[in-house]
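To whoever is on call:

I kicked off a structure prediction for a single chain this morning and the downstream step that reads the tokens threw a length-mismatch warning. I double-checked the sequence; it's 468 residues and nothing unusual in it as far as I can see. Pasting both halves so you can look.
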Amino acid sequence: MNNYIRLYQEKLQLYEEQLMEDLAELVAIRSVRDEETKKPGAPFGNEIREIFDRMTAISERDDFKSTNFDGYAMHVEHGDCNEIIGILAHLDIVPEGEKKDWLFDPFTLTRHGDYLYGRGVNDDKAPALAAYYALKILRDLDFKFDRKVRIILGGAEETTWECMDHYFKHNAQPMMAFSPDGDFPIVHGEKGVLQGTFFQKIEPSADAYPHHLIEIESEKQRGYICERLRVVFESSYPMELKDLLEGAEETVIAGSYIIAFYKGDKALSRNPHKGENALFRFAKDLMAIENANGSLLKLKKLLIKYFCNDIHGENLGLFLEDKDMGITTFSIPYLLYQNKKLEIGFDYRYPKGQESKVAKRNLENFCEKNNLNFTIYKEFGLLYIHRESQLIQTLQQAYQNITGNTPECITKGGISYSRALQNCVAFGPTFPGDIPNTHKPNERIKLQTLYKAVMIYCETIRLLATKS
């Protein structure tokens, strides 16, 4: 086995400069989905079509066979066997945000210390090239494959995933696959996801109660728990109400109106336990308001009975625990009350043992009891590949052969590209302790992480593509 590792290392050292040049060319393309420039052959816009063409040119330079599927996706392949091993990556990126927040130009590959910086350098352009160069190294070392290897590259992973719907209308599913779009060691389980919205029309009360709810604003987003709330009250006794709003970061009195600002601690919606929802601070203050009716009373009852401090969905009958995948999470990413309409976003993630149809039935029951409606914004079935499967056993062997460490299998609440395939798991490139700033300013990848990932992928492809 040491001979294999030595061969990989020698070839990687030979290709390092070319790998950096190819990565610089890919990073330079702002491959963000652009509806304004979409057209036949470029369904996600000109920039994503351009990066597919660039990757095609790289593969043609290296004498690989590549095929573009109408600008939705492409693949690079090696071998003529019937059985297929897949490697699923993507070439589209999220927008860079404010350039002033970056240390370097996000579309110029920059080496600084031990890191490479640039938008997409970790998600997912460098990992895609790591897999590509692993295949190139094995091909150039003349390894004999018993299975065809396909590097499948999508163009809409960051948006709709319709790239994979189109791709698999034209291609068979691989028998086994991995996606270099996650973490090491092996992410063999990802929770099911239901993201949606509760909504209700609430007429304000005409009764002579002293405090009335006028408006609630928060950022309408899905990826994080509710971090900020702006709540507007009208009150006959504004100073009295202000004293009750102890959880507010700031309160402003303007005549009979009180504007209260609530701030939580930011956390991903899939990890609500890692932060504090601003809604919980607001709900705690509502408990202290006794003279309430109409919209204020309805919201008070709803938040306190069902949502306040419940991050597992117990109050909605959604709680479940699995010995392999852990427990459910339930978070509120935003809360709105405007123009007599209440809107509450939710993000529910569940392990095996739960079924989507059962969870939806519980949501329906909850809505019927409380005169609410709900819609599902996004839904993903859970992913779970058993540790004893051939895929997991092979990935473990490859990881151990290169690193000398026995890899653990982990499960997460996140959504990786692996779910687009039937027998696929996320496998690298990020190692524990890495801080890649994915989707944030100063996205980066450690050079040693990238090179080690190439080595691991060399060994992984060799083992997966060899029947013995």
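Update from on-call: the warning came from a stale cache, not from the record. Cleared it. Sanity check on the structure: The chain has two domains: 2-191+383-464, 197-379.
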